[in-house]
């Protein structure tokens, strides 16, 4: 659904997981291997949730990297 409201903030959670058999089959990976699970939530100015996304990434193919601009730090660092 398109809301027409501007997204002003996002929350992202990244976790290491061992997916269940169905997800391993979908990714084409060995059962019991570690992967990255990511959840994103987008908010408007009045904190209305306008988007939610879940993803699982093959831990053998992807890295998680972060760059933090200390002149414009994330809110949690203020």
Short description:
The protein is mainly β and 78 residues long. It contains one helix and three strands; from the N terminus they run βαββ.
How many runs of DSSP E, i.e. beta strands?
3
Q: Span from first to last CA?
A: 34 Å
Pattern of helices and strands:
EHEE
- Kindly report the spatial arrangement of strands forming the biggest sheet: 1-2-3
What proportion of the residues form beta strands (DSSP E)? Answer: 35-45%
Mean pLDDT: 84
Q: Helical region count?
A: 1
Q: Write down the overall geometry.
A: flat
Instruction: Provide the gyration radius in Å.
Output: 16 Å
Low-confidence stretches: none
Please describe the biggest sheet, giving its number of strands, its sense, and whether it closes into a barrel. 3 strands, antiparallel
Considering DSSP H and I runs of 4 or more, what fraction of the residues is helical? under 10%
Q: SS-based structural class?
A: mainly beta
């Amino acid at each position: 659904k398109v809301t027409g409201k501007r997204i002003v903030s996002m929350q992202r959670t990244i976790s290491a997981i061992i997916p269940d058999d169905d997800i391993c089959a979908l990714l084409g990976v060995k059962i019991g291997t570690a992967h990255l699970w990511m959840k994103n939530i987008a908010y408007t100015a009045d904190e209305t949730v306008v988007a939610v996304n879940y993803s699982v990434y093959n831990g053998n193919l992807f890295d998680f990297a972060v760059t933090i601009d200390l002149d414009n730090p994330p809110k949690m660092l203020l």
